[in-house]
Amino acid sequence: MAAPWEDVLRNEAAVQEAARVAVDAALLAGVLMRTEGEPNASDVVNYAPFTLLPSAVPSALFEQAYAVQQDFNLLVDAISQNKEFLEHTLASTIKVDDFTARLFRIYMQVLEEGLAQSVFLGINRSDYMFDRGVDGTPALKQIEINTIAASFGGLTSRTVAVHGQVLKVLGKSKEASRLLPNNPSKGLALGIAKAWELYGSPSAVVMFLVEEVQRNIFDQRCVENELWNRNIRVIRRRFRDVFEKGSLDDARRLYMDGQEVAVVYYREGYVPKNYDQQNWEARLLLERSRAVKCPDIATQLAGTKKVQQELSQPGTLEKLLPGRAEAVARIRATFAGLYSLDVGEEGDKIAAMAIADPDRFVLKPQREGGGNNLYGEELRQVLEKIRDSPERTSYILMDKIKPQPAMNYLLRAHSPLQVSECISELGIFGVYIRQGEEMVMNKAAGHLLRTKAIEHADGGVAAGVAVLDTPYLV
Ligand code: ADP
Ligand code: MG
Question: Could you list the residue range(s) of the whole structural domain that residue 367 is in?
Fold first, then answer.
């Protein structure tokens, strides 16, 4: 699985020179983030962290990940329409996890009132690692699927040119020409534009629901600009703005500052800290509206870790996707071992198994955004403490995926250049639209490769651990 530039990694002068070129190329290409010090101003920006060199990705696994994406789109959409499944699957979780419980309450409330929304837009990203099997053959294993606020589809479209230039500087033009073009933000925008069109009100706008702290604004602007290029108006608002100025008319059309909103694209709202009482009220208002929510609350719930674990149970996929045996097989092939910690004999056994051999597993709470999972000794301690309490049902247990590390340099502003042993995570963006019962779009929209040093068990780019990368297919 090695990339053909192991020789370069040991040539310090060449690496230093390439890194200088890389950073300037990244700034020129727009691989940008606002700074920690000034997260809401664009006066001072820096490059988003990225690898010096592209990372090797087995082409068969890359193709497999693309091939299963439409299946995952169908699956997420099916779950989002299956009240019985969501109710049953999340029953134990919402007893102990307040955040999931609040989302679930809004879900039930909206269903009771009856949905005003008839066009559904899903944008997700299914993430994988390449598990090294006993014989050394890597296998594609899903880490999770993100059904809300899946990010970096914009910035990642700009790393290809940067890595291409780095390879040329290093005398690897032939390899540079083999890097695949990639533009998820365009695919995401196409989905949003189509949903906007189907909503059917040409004067209505698309609203990006954004966080208070907006360091990753350039990633969002990539999608935004694609919409402006299609003459679709985009506004950016926070929950707070919606609370203060959002309203519904009799037909539950959503208005912000007097403008009708056709599509609400959430880049916010996936972790408890995004919400105070007012923000919950704003979320409810949005969910009750007829605007296309990307995602609606049901689709957000479909992306919980508990749902992921339930999907791995025998027979579940078959029930959710009846008559689609091939899709089910493709999906199942990507699953790692997932285990429920629900109260009962089975859960007791699983807890004991994890406590006895913590390095084999990852313990995951119902949280997004990186940095929440537990590993090794910490996993053992936490699980020991809660093994006899219902609190354990707020977690799921997963087999730890163990990829083959590779050497690379991680470029981060204000950090020294040093070689690290790294592992990568591949994400495939999915976009789909359903109008009533009919699927009118179902696509894979591009990919994202993120790479981190192996000493970090957890965490994404936004969490400051992983960096942007470009796959080099081998
Ligand atoms: P989050 O919603 O916080 O992104 P993830 O399930 O994606 O949660 O986990 C965060 C990170 O933890 C992943 O990006 C990956 O680096 C690591 N991780 C998660 N699950 C596993 C696993 N089963 N094996 C190895 N690493 C994992
Ligand atoms: Mg993740």
Answer: 337-399
How far is ligand 2, taken at its centre, from the CA of residue 135, in Å?
27
**pLDDT of 259 over the 70 cut:** yes
Residue 371 annotated as lining a ligand binding site: yes
299 and 359 assigned to the same domain: no
Residue written as tokens 């365009």? 186
Distance, CA 327 to ligand 2 centroid (Å)?
Answer: 23
Find, among 373, 312, 333, the residue nearest to 140 by Cα: 333
State pLDDT tens for residues 36-48: 999 999 999 999 9
Long-range contacts of range 418-421, CB-CB < 8 Å, 24 or more positions apart? 419/9, 420/453, 420/454, 421/453, 421/454
Number of domains making up the chain: 2
Model confidence, pTM = 0.97
Check if the beta carbon of residue 197 is closer than 8 Å to that of residue 190: no
- Residue 319 among the catalytic residues: no
Q: Is 370 annotated as a binding residue?
A: yes
- Cα–Cα distances in angstroms (integers) from residue 201 to residues 12, 246, 395, in the given order: 58, 18, 43
User: Catalytic annotation on 95?
Assistant: no
> Do 370 and 245 have their domain in common?
no
Give yes or no for residue 463 having a pLDDT over 80.
Answer: no
* Residue 305 among the catalytic residues: yes
Instruction: Tell me which residue has its CA closest to atom 23 in ligand 1.
Output: 400
- What is the tens place of the pLDDT at every residue in 231-245? 999 999 999 999 999
Q: Which residue puts its alpha carbon closest to atom 11 of ligand 1?
A: 458
Catalytic residue among 305, 306, 380, 434: 305
Mean pLDDT value across the chain: 96
Does one domain contain both 383 and 455? no
Query: Which two tokens mark 395?
Result: 């977690």
The alpha carbon of 143 and the centre of ligand 1 are apart by a number of angstroms equal to 6
Substitution site in 141, 143, 451 for ligand 1 pocket (most atoms within 8 Å of beta carbon): 143
- Ligand closest to Cα of 305 equals 1
Let me know whether 321 and 342 are in one domain. Answer: no
Does 287 lie in the same domain as 417?
yes
Does 131 lie in the same domain as 80?
A: yes
> Would the pLDDT of 342 be above 90?
yes
Is 148 assigned a ligand-binding role in the annotation? yes
Asked if 279 is an active-site residue, the reply is no
Which ligand 1 atom sits nearest the alpha carbon of residue 146?
2
Distances (CA, A) of 453 to 62, 445, 447: 21, 27, 20
Q: How many alpha carbons fall within 13 Å on the CB side of residue 295?
A: 30
Which residue is it, tokens 């390879």?
Answer: 167
pLDDT at 1 over 70: no
Regarding whether 309 and 206 lie in a shared domain, the answer is yes
CA-nearest residue for atom 3, ligand 1, is 370
